[in-house]
Amino acid sequence: MPSMLPVLGLSTPCGAFSCLKQGASSPEVEYLQRQLQVAGFNPGHVDGLFGPKTKAAVMAFQRARGLEVDGIAGPRLWAALDVQRGSGQRPVLKRGLSEPVVEVIQKLLAAHGFDPGTKDGIFGPKTERAVLAFQRAMGLEADGVVGPKTWSALSGMVLPQRSVA
């Protein structure tokens, strides 16, 4: 049975997101680092490790956006980053996409024990099958699309199981 444990790192649930802070190590930290880069803030090497440079980039972003400057990637920082990207939320991912964020999803699936195949940023049939299996295991609607609920579950939050009638 696949592991339902959260991804390793110093993170706690923050609504639909994880709060990430210095010392965390996960694919979600890598996603944070990429989003900081897109927003024009340098987190250092994009490696999934929340080190001093990532913390400095988080603090600079918080300062620039008028947020509380605590160096923690919490819900307000995530919302500001996502609005910066123009979507207002994390991207919806589905089969056929080829983007760096797909590699983050592939790494998160693997961390939960679901094999997405090669972690190459291409949302192909094997990644879709892994998403479907993960969604079924978590009691989510199994549609193969990574939307807000699947993002939350992959980020280490435990969602309530739906009852099967």
Q: Extract low-pLDDT stretches.
A: 1-10, 157-165
CATH fold name of the largest domain: Muramoyl-pentapeptide Carboxypeptidase, domain 1
Compute the average pLDDT: 79
Helix-strand pattern, N to C? EEHHHHHH
The value of Rg in angstroms is 15 Å
Helix content: 40-55%
CATH class designation of the largest domain = Mainly Alpha
Note the total helix count.
6
CATH architecture of the largest domain: Orthogonal Bundle
Q: How widely separated are the two ends?
A: 22 Å
Structural class: mainly alpha
> What oligomerization state is this entry in?
single chain
In CATH, the homologous superfamily of the largest domain goes by the name PGBD-like superfamily/PGBD
Biggest sheet layout:
2 strands, antiparallel
How many domains, in number, for the residues?
A: 2
Overall shape: it is: elongated
Strand order of the largest sheet: 1-2
Q: Classify the beta-strand content into a percent band.
A: under 5%
Protein name: Peptidoglycan-binding protein
Domain Peptidoglycan binding-like: 26-81, 100-154
Organism: Hyalangium rubrum
